[in-house]
Amino acid sequence: MSERSSANKLVCYGEILWDILPAGELPGGAPMNVAYHLHKLKRDVSIITAVGSDSYGAALVNLLSKWGIGTEYCHIDHYHPTGIVYARSNEHFEMTYDIVYPSAWDFIIWDDRYVSLMQDTDYLVFGSLACRNYTSGNTLFKLLESAKNKVLDINIRPPHFSRKVVEQLLHKSNILKLNQAELELIAGWFSTSSTVADKIKAIQDRFRLKTIVVTMGSNGAVLCMDGHFYQHPGYKVQVADTVGSGDAFLAALLSKLIEGAPPEAMLHYACAMGALIASYPGACPHYQIDEIVELNNFSNIRA
């Protein structure tokens, strides 16, 4: 694909911030990460977010512009600082996060321009973390009233979530992406199912979700689409950190969905993208699309 595709427009909604890692400060926030990778994949993507009127905020706006992602829906908040997250990794490359509150992205205010934006948007990508504060949560639910395809990237970060809000978001969504721990938690609210497939089916039936995908780290992922299950065991890579690898996975999955690729191809490509980003430090590294193609072959699949 040599030119940017405008056949399907996507909008990412929510947090934009700086990840403070042992190796240094890197841009992050799931919505921005997804937008970055969608843009790399030549998709037409915008982001609705907010930053503070500080040096961190100015740096993020400049970075979005440098990447070629529009900043017209990036609100400048003069009362709250740009978001910061202190991220740490253990010996198993599992991340823990200390998400500073309040942050500018907690206060994404409604803008009447969003009405026409949603009319032109095919996919709205959002997470549960954006609902930890009423202002951003209220704006999101207003967007969901008119959004076409609603992609929920669950982001359970205690104590920044409530079961009530998560279930409300699930009822509004068409596509759900979550990790294995989040699958266990949510399915456990209303089901005693024991297998991954049964837990997915329980969530799908309860919330009438068309598509559910569960990421399982180095063990790959499971996709349930239109009642059919597909599984990929993951790719072998030397892990730098896992920050943003799930966001890259989602961007690749959506890109292939827009192309009309078969479910198996969608899942293979998404797993390759997630593994590739895990091999780099940070959520939004510089990489070439050819690297995904090189990784996405059977010789690199885990045994």
From TrEMBL:
Presence of the UniProt keyword Kinase in the record: yes
Domain of life of the source: Bacteria
A molecular function GO annotation: kinase activity
Kinase in keyword set: yes
Positions of the Carbohydrate kinase PfkB domain: 27-284
Listed Gene3D superfamilies: 3.40.1190.20
Keywords: Kinase, Transferase
Alphabetized CDD domains for the sequence: bac_FRK
PANTHER family from the UniProt entry: CARBOHYDRATE KINASE PFKB DOMAIN-CONTAINING PROTEIN, HEXOKINASE FAMILY MEMBER
Record's protein name: Carbohydrate kinase
Species classification: Bacteria, Pseudomonadati, Bacteroidota, Chitinophagia, Chitinophagales
